[in-house]
Design a protein that fits this description.
It is a single chain. The protein is of the alpha+beta class and about 575 residues long. Helices cover about 25% and strands about 25% of the residues. Strand 20 and strand 21 form a beta hairpin. It is globular, with a radius of gyration of 25 Å. The two termini are about 30 Å apart. The N terminus is likely disordered.
Length: about 575
């Protein structure tokens, strides 16, 4: 899978998890383990990248949480009075959380068992203590502090009136957790509400793998307690959504967008949402925010991060309070922001700046870890030739599209460029269809023309227009060319894992770094590929290079030893070797 990488250690991992969708026919009654039930998987999210996966030998990306068509189907069946597959299972033990709000069900030993380590000698495994602690924390912050409604009680299902958490081995399924609708809790305005229970993994082990037996991947991006922390925040937020406000049943994107927000709101030092950064930054046309898909919700965690920074907790709280009387989740998000004297259009237009200012463009004013994120990819790169550049196209609902215009330059410098972020703000069709588009036109000339504005001191003039000006916005960024040189060899060499953040590989002379990318492939001493990705060419300290953070495609640090690399650029190739040292 092609991933544009510059400085992000987190960004090199695959989008990890695939969603649960439906129980196979023929399973209707009896206790059912998540792992043993023949659960069909809808990997449409990975299918888009199937060709890339086959070409690279890496698994396709998968979804993270079990909230999708499986959840919707179960809710529909509940409202229709249909019989449900029993997904609660009998466990060896159960214990209340310190607050008494949760009852944790678990085994010790067996497939689903937790490790029987009990360092605090309270006769409860330490992992179970952690599950209880972090779900209590989720309730305390999301309900008591922020003010979301609490999920409704389920009577005595599970053995008490407390909210039930079941611990199972989800690793082979590649999901972190699942919030399961259990029974109807009435309506929340327009939408049905439900009692629920939650299933979480039994250890989030780095050894957990999932795949088809041939192509295997690690099940979890963050692992161990760090993964547990964000899973508790994420899944409990689903319980709040379904229980206190009602399911926006046809808009998984809004559910996952909001639950991904809960992850970093409660645990800003855990970076699980960053597994989706590479695919978002290189595929904005595929993951337009107005596309109702679970993947969209995961990928736009960075947009939720912006809303939190600009509008605080009220943005998401207002959204869910508006859900009960809104036509859909996008309308609710807009209404929630209007309560704060903003709008979804205003915020999404401002989001262009946050997408653009990452990596070396980071100003410390946008995304918290923006300097570690890759640069956004350009949909179109056009070099100026007299008398003009003329571009046009159509944008899907809430699509961000970046285009770059390049102006003539000498061999020794990068070109002056103007980068444009073009944005569709069509709220009416958000979540409905990708067929509704807003068209745009971009005209750049070397002579003044009516309606055009000068581009700095470049001597060029620009006009950007749309057939629906009220549904369209754009941002413009001018970059002045700089003198560059080619380094003689890869550096630093040796690469010291504990000291150095990046390796820089030299580009051949006269390469246009503003336009192209190169395929970087790294081999170990046995000539086994440890990394192979398409990576943007860049300028570091006026040197033309390809930058890499020294981690494998699965995010592992390199072992000490000699490595061989190759750079493929168009029809040319260069190669060399470097040494890796580890001090630990």
């Amino acid at each position: 899978m092609k991933v544009y990488l510059r400085r992000s250690a987190a960004a090199i991992q695959l989008v990890l998890t695939c969603t649960l969708t439906a129980l196979v026919a023929g399973v209707s009654t009896g206790e059912l383990r998540m792992q043993d039930s023949q659960i069909a998987t809808d990997c449409a999210c990975g299918a888009d990248h199937g060709a890339e996966a086959a070409a690279t030998g890496l698994p396709s990306p998968f979804r993270k949480c079990g909230f999708t068509s499986f959840t919707v189907k179960r809710m529909q069946d509940i409202l229709a009075g249909g019989q449900q597959v029993q997904m609660r299972r009998t466990t060896q033990f159960s214990t209340p959380s310190p607050s008494g709000r949760f009852l944790i069900h678990y085994d010790v030993g067996g497939v689903d068992g937790v490790a029987d380590i009990d360092d605090n000698s309270n006769n409860v495994p330490d992992y179970v203590d952690s599950v209880a602690f972090y779900f209590d924390h989720a309730w305390r912050v999301e309900v008591d502090e922020i003010g979301f409604g609490a999920p409704p009680a389920d009577g005595n299902n599970g053995g008490s009136a407390a909210y039930d958490i079941y611990i199972e081995d989800l690793g082979p399924r590649g999901i972190y957790g699942l919030t399961v609708p259990d029974s109807s809790a009435g309506t929340g305005g327009r939408y049905g509400r439900f009692t629920t229970f939650i299933i979480v993994d039994n250890n989030f082990s780095p050894l957990d793998k999932t795949g088809d037996g041939v192509l295997q991947r690690q099940s979890y991006f963050e692992k161990g307690i760090r993964a547990l922390r964000v899973t508790a925040a994420h899944e409990f937020h689903h319980a709040i959504q379904l229980g206190a406000y009602g399911s926006v049943q046809n808009e998984c994107s809004i559910h996952e967008f909001s639950s991904t927000w809960a992850e970093f709101r409660l645990h800003p030092d855990v970076y699980d949402l960053e597994q989706f950064i590479p695919s978002l930054f290189r595929n904005l046309d595929k993951f337009n925010f107005g596309n109702n898909d679970c993947d969209v919700g995961y990928h736009y965690g960075v947009f939720a991060q912006m809303l939190q920074a600009r509008q605080g907790d009220a943005a998401m709280l207002n959204t869910w309070e508006a859900v009960t009387n809104s036509n859909n989740g996008y309308d609710a998000l807009d209404e929630g922001l209007r309560m704060l004297n903003s709008s979804l259009a205003d915020e999404y237009c401002a989001f262009s700046d946050w997408l653009y200012h990452t990596d070396y463009r980071d100003r410390g004013e946008e995304l918290v870890r923006g300097s570690t994120y890759p640069l956004v990819s350009f949909h179109t790169v056009e070099r100026f030739s007299e008398p003009s550049i003329n571009l046009s196209g159509g944008l899907k609902p809430f699509e961000q599209r970046f285009v770059r215009l390049l102006f003539p330059q000498s061999e020794a410098e990068t070109p002056d460029t103007v980068d444009l972020a073009l944005v569709n703000l069509d709220l009416l069709n958000a979540g409905e269809t990708d067929n509704a588009t807003v068209t745009y036109s971009v005209v750049c000339t070397s002579t003044p023309r009516e309606g055009a504005e000068p581009i700095g001191n470049t001597g060029y003039y620009l006009s950007v227009n749309s057939d629906h000006e009220n549904l369209f916005c754009y941002s413009k960024y001018l970059n002045t060319g700089v003198l560059t040189n080619a380094p003689p060899a890869v550096f630093p060499n040796p690469f010291v894992v504990e000291r150095d953040e990046q390796l820089f590989f030299p580009l051949q002379p006269n390469i246009d770094v503003e336009v192209q990318s190169a395929v970087l492939t790294v081999y170990d001493a046995a000539m086994t590929i440890v990394y192979s990705e398409e990576t943007p060419l860049s300028v570091e300290n006026n040197l033309r290079v390809v930058a890499w953070d020294g981690r494998t495609a699965m995010g592992d640090q390199l072992s000490s030893g000699v490595y061989i690399y190759s750079l493929e650029y168009k029809d040319s190739q260069s190669a060399g070797k470097f040494l890796v040292k580890r001090t630990e």
